Amino acid sequence: MATEVRQINFSDVLPIRHKVMWPNMPVSYVKLEGDMNARHFGLFVNGKITSIISLFTKNNEVQFRKFATLIEYQGLGHGTVLLKNIINVIKKEGAKRIWCNARVEKEKFYKKFDLKATTNKFSKGGIEYVIMENIID
């Protein structure tokens, strides 16, 4: 299995976000304010994008959002490969904090990447979220 992580265009992430995260909503539902200024990355496996993530940087902090893996590739480690790679990039760039709005049921997954749950929780679209973060020394 040949894998490669590379920066991609917003137009490349949109269909995957929609298909994986909110397929019953209009495509506009998965567009985010700031998407045009964000950096978007994809994991390519044998030339096909299987997992995507978007990075939003502000005040030396990086929030990753809309992290998704195509359903047929979930559970195969594709998201893990992408997120490990992206966290390494963020750390090398000198960010002081990495954070995300994690679905509560995915909290255990994010703990594997040294992200810790905060006390900040909220609900969107009937789904419970918790803000998870890693403060980098």
Labels describing this entry:
alpha+beta; 137 residues; 42% strand
List SSEs in N-to-C order. Answer: EHEEEHEHEE
Radius of gyration: 14 Å
Strand residue content: 35-45%
Number of extended strands:
7
Contiguous runs where pLDDT drops below 50 for at least 5 residues: none
Main pleated-sheet profile: 7 strands, mixed
Amino-to-carboxy terminus distance: 35 Å
Determine the fraction of residues in helical runs and give it as a percent range: 10-25%
Outline = globular
Q: Which structural class should the secondary elements be placed in?
A: alpha+beta
Question: What's the number of helices?
Answer: 3
Could you describe the 3D structure shown?
The chain has a 7-stranded mixed sheet with strand order 1-2-3-4-5-7-6, with helices on both faces. The mean pLDDT is 94. β6 and β7 (127-135) form a beta hairpin. By secondary structure, the chain is α+β, with helices and mostly antiparallel strands. It is built from 3 helices and 7 strands, in the order βαβββαβαββ. The protein has helices spanning 10-21, 78-92, 107-111, and strands at 3-8, 39-45, 48-58, 61-69, 97-103, 116-124, 127-135. The chain is globular and about 35 Å long.
How do the helices and strands line up, and which of them pair or pack?
Layout lengths: L2 E6 L1 H12 L17 E7 L2 E11 L2 E9 L8 H15 L4 E7 L3 H5 L4 E9 L2 E9 L2
Parallel strand pairs: 4-5
Antiparallel strand pairs: 1-2, 2-3, 3-4, 5-7, 6-7
Précis, in short:
This protein has 137 residues and is an alpha+beta fold.
